[in-house]
């Protein structure tokens, strides 16, 4: 895996804050997902549960990836930092064998759309009605 952040892509610096701000509301929902639930979600949504996580760090509870374009993966890593810091959903991209360069604007859209899919899955696949729908946050 060759993991990079959004700045790697053409126009990435301009889209970094868009992704960061867009993921704040989504993280507030997805932080309630535990490791087993993340594994179920990844499988049900056509993604991958990454075990071990692509980064060696004891704060990572779970990591899932989705492949919107062949050989281009979006990796979501849930870092449990509380009580010292807020939990964080770190986003990295695997571009090791990507067939072409994807513009940061498209990468940002893919990132938010797949996070939305996970949230919909939390409610419909996992049956977690205790978690409000994404429309409440956006």
Care to describe what's here?
The chain is α+β, with helices and mostly antiparallel strands. The protein has one domain (3-129). Helix content is 36%, strand content 21%. It has three helices and five strands; from the N terminus they run βααββββα. It has helices spanning 12-30, 35-44, 104-124, and strands spanning 3-4, 48-49, 60-69, 72-79, 88-94. Strands 1-5-4-3-2 form a five-stranded antiparallel sheet. Helix 1 runs parallel beside helix 3 (104-124). The protein is globular.
Give a short overview.
The protein is built from three helices and five strands.
- What string, H for helix and E for strand, traces the elements in order? EHHEEEEH
Q: Compute the gyration radius: what is it? A: 14 Å
Share of helix, binned:
25-40%
The neighbouring-strand order within the major sheet is 1-5-4-3-2
Low-confidence stretches: none
Secondary structure class reads: alpha+beta
Largest sheet descriptor: 5 strands, antiparallel
Number of continuous helical runs: 3
Number of domains: 1
Key terms:
five-stranded antiparallel beta sheet; 138 residues; alpha+beta; 3 helices; globular; 36% helix
């Amino acid at each position: 895996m060759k993991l990079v952040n959004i700045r790697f892509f053409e126009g990435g610096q301009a889209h970094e804050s868009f992704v960061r701000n867009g993921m704040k509301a989504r993280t507030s929902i997805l932080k309630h997902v535990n490791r087993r639930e993340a594994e179920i979600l990844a499988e049900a949504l056509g993604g991958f549960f990454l075990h071990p996580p692509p980064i060696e760090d004891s704060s990572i509870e779970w990591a899932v990836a989705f492949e919107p374009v062949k050989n281009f993966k979006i990796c979501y890593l849930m870092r449990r930092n509380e009580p010292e810091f807020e939990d964080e959903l770190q986003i990295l991209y695997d571009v090791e064998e990507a067939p072409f360069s994807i513009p940061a604007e498209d990468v940002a859209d893919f990132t938010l759309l797949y996070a939305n899919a996970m949230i919909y899955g939390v409610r419909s696949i996992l049956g977690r009605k205790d978690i409000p729908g994404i429309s409440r946050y956006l």
